[in-house]
Amino acid sequence: MVYRTRSERHQKKRTLDKKFNKKTVLSLVGTGLVIAPTTAALLPQESYAEEYQPSENEASYLINQISTSAQQIADSNDLYASVMIAQALLESGNGNSSLSSSPTYNLFGVKAYGQEPSTWMSTKEYVDGEWETMDEPFRVYNSYEESLQDHAAVLKASSYSSGAPNYEGTWKSQTSSYTDATAYLTGRYATDPDYGQKLNALIEAYNLTQFDTPAQAGNTTESIQETEVSAESESTSEKTQTSSNTGSTYTVQQGDTLWDIAQNQGISLDELMANNGLTDQMVTVGQQLNV
């Protein structure tokens, strides 16, 4: 059986041992020392790879890299982009954990099972009230966008045994605000009792609600779909107005990601990276790209 969530593997083990424990497992890959502008270290534990103190600038850089993709993916899956981005910041140490960096792009510390592309890394797990260090296989993605897509799939997936949604309490149609979603994740997605508060602190510190769909009146599927179309149209219009294309080159604009540029230019992300000899998705404003 394939387990999609980080906790199901440990829960199955405890069921087989007849020592069922309602606490799920919180993987600390890259979540060691996440800092918001007005808070101290949100998690006291060390990152699995090395000691690292992420800065506000690094958090802003990751937000700039993933916000557009996160907004599109969240809108199309009835999820909060603000929560998705906050989880990415918290889980990846602002994108600076080895797991979240090129070439693995695993923002959420997702474990690998079966034949999924994977890499083995040392990590800390919170099991039965104690921290344990162990080697685990983690998913390998081709891009941040692919990692975000897989995370959305996890939040929308249903239980293999009961058929009930695993994280229905994180959906916009089932909540009144993002705080309902972060509260629902606490104790389900992660065992840390302060998990939701840490996500809320990041959302507030970096104004991540700006990436959420504004209109949620009635919490209906129809209103979500209408807003999604509006957001996509607006994004396309803005890209058209700010595009600095000249022949076969493109000048990177504020807020651009490689995935966005590839989509707007009608080419694949891999092709765009190959055209410019890029090994990761880092781009800077003003950079000239061959398209």
Task: Please provide a brief summary of the model.
The protein has helices at residues 8-16, 56-76, 81-92, 144-156, 178-185, 195-205, 221-242, 258-265, 269-275; strands spanning 118-127, 130-139, 249-251, 288-290. By secondary structure, it is mainly alpha-helical.
Topology:
Layout: H1 8-16, H2 56-76, H3 81-92, E1 118-127, E2 130-139, H4 144-156, H5 178-185, H6 195-205, H7 221-242, E3 249-251, H8 258-265, H9 269-275, E4 288-290
Antiparallel strand pairs: 1-2, 3-4
Helix pairs in contact: 2-3, 2-4, 3-6, 5-6, 8-9
Architecture overview:
- The strands form two sheets. The protein has a two-stranded antiparallel sheet with strand order 1-2. The chain has a two-stranded antiparallel sheet with strand order 3-4.
- Helix 3 packs across helix 6 (195-205) and helix 5 (178-185) runs antiparallel to helix 6.
- Mean pLDDT is 73; it is low at 1-54, 215-231 and 235-246.
- It is globular, with a radius of gyration of 19 Å.
- Strand 1 (118-127) and strand 2 form a beta hairpin.
- With 291 residues, it is mostly helical.
- It has two domains: 8-242, Lysozyme; 244-291, Membrane-bound Lytic Murein Transglycosylase D, Chain A.
- It has nine helices and four strands; from the N terminus they run αααββααααβααβ.
- One of its GO terms (biological process) is defense response to bacterium.
- Keywords: Antimicrobial, Bacteriolytic enzyme, Glycosidase, Hydrolase.
- One of its GO terms (molecular function) is amidase activity.
